[in-house]
Amino acid sequence: MAEAITAAAATSLSIKPSTRHSPLFLSSTSFPILRLNSHKNPNFRPLVVSSSMSIESVATQKTSSKTAFLDQREGSRYLHFVKYHGLGNDFILVDNRDSSEPKITPEQAAKLCDRNFGIGADGVIFALPGINGTDYTMRIFNSDGSEPEMCGNGVRCFARFIAELENLHGKKLSFSVHTGAGLIVPEIQEDGKVKVDMGEPVLKAIDVPTKLGANKNDAVVKSELVVDGVTWNVTCVSMGNPHCVTFGIKGGQDLQVDALNLAEIGPKFEHHEVFPARTNTEFVQVYSPSHLKMRVWERGAGATLACGTGACATVVAAVLEGHAGRNCTVDLPGGPLEIEWREEDNHVYMTGPAEMVFYGSVPL
Questions:
Q1: Chain-wide mean pLDDT for the chain?
Q2: In a designed cystine with 335, which of 47, 87, 153, 170 is the match (CB 3.0 to 4.6 A)?
Q3: pTM of the predicted model as reported, rounded to 2 decimal places
Q4: CA atoms of 359 and 353, how far apart (whole Å)
């Protein structure tokens, strides 16, 4: 037991985040156990150190110091974070409001995202000061260290994170966020879900970007793309980041997305020569004009349980190809999103959940 407690005290993931901004973060002096604080997860089993064996005594054995183990986790050597997920698409959220540059490098972010040797996530999101009149700026490093322009599930998590930091509970609120894809406006609903104005979809081939020839005005709609010797029908859409949406192969039966070997086919789309900035790829099955099912291979993250911008691009592509109407439920492996492509303003609106998983600190 003593060895287990010592190992727990020495672990690289400790639970004493910053107390600077919000009661979200708990003080070690008022919280007598070491705990990964899981939110809304009845199956979560926290690591508990009994009060009869104080964390301070364990830390003293390990470091010959009277400083409590959790108190050592303050200072610039440790990164404080909160982990959130949007339908299983999970992110490490960092309060970066005191600086216009991320606190960690892309390489460090990739290590933190490692599910075996780090915290584990699809990406790291930074809440930075707003620019150009916006309330906040959001930047993301993917699990491979690359930086995407935007992330739909990520911006919902970002909105809930800001609400916690600013102690804005029980209120319907919205704010403006500067992203690499431009201005994004999330709104936290009374039921806790987040509705996001994702802006207008970009259809012009050169702006997606794709080298596929435009076949409908300046857009690529149900065009042929050969991938590993198979001809797929694809529609290309940008939601601030590039997407290639397919409902199946040329002349084939309706796509059954659960039968796909995503790990094999996904990278071949992502790195196809017709996508100079690489691409996210959505494989879509049509249940009805208002109900779609999607699996996604994300650029820089691989197969994920959900992709908000991908769900938006999917509905746009479904409308353009005549598969669906402008209001759809999109089922993803992690759960459903509600997507609306409004005709009156040409904006795409996404509504879905975002939930806190746990918070902690990690050595840099």
A1: 84
A2: 87
A3: 0.78
A4: 18
Locate 311 and state its tokens: 């769900």
Q: Report the C-alpha gap between 138 and 355 in whole angstroms.
A: 18
Which of 357, 294, 282 has its CA nearest to residue 330?
294
CA separation for the pair 122, 353 (Å, rounded): 17
Q: Does the annotation mark 236 as catalytic?
A: no
- Residue type for position 122: D
Kindly state the tokens that stand for 339.
Answer: 């997507």
Between 308-321 and 152-165, two packed helices, what is the crossing angle to 10 degrees? 140
Neighbours of 217 (CB within 10 A): 9
Query: Is 151 a catalytic site residue?
Result: yes
| Residues 6 or more apart in contact with residue 68 via CB below 8 angstroms | 28, 29, 55, 56, 59
In this predicted structure, the answer to whether residue 109 has a pLDDT above a threshold of 80 is: yes
Backbone angles phi, psi at 4, to 5 degrees: -65, -40
Side-chain half-sphere of 330: how many Cα atoms within 13 Å?
36
| Amino acid 211: pLDDT | 98
Q: HSE (CB half, 13 Å, CA atoms) of 332?
A: 28
Tell me: the pLDDT tens digits for 83-106? 999 999 999 999 999 999 999 999
Neighbours of 319 (CB within 10 A): 18
Q: Active site residue: 151, 157, 236, 244, which one?
A: 151
Q: Which of 300, 364, 288, 357 is nearest to 328 (CA)?
A: 288
Phi-psi region at 293: left, alpha or beta (left = phi > 0; alpha = psi -120 to 50): beta
User: What is the separation of C-alpha 255 from the centre of its chain, rounded to a whole number of angstroms?
Assistant: 26
Q: What is the pLDDT of residues 277-336, one digit of tens each?
A: 999 999 999 999 999 999 999 999 999 999 999 999 999 999 999 999 999 999 999 999
Residues facing 234 on adjacent strands: 223, 246
- Identify the sign of the CA torsion 269, 270, 271, 272: positive
pLDDT at 28 over 70: no
- Catalytic: which of 236, 307, 312, 328? 307
Distance in angstroms (rounded) separating the CA atoms of residues 284 and 292: 7
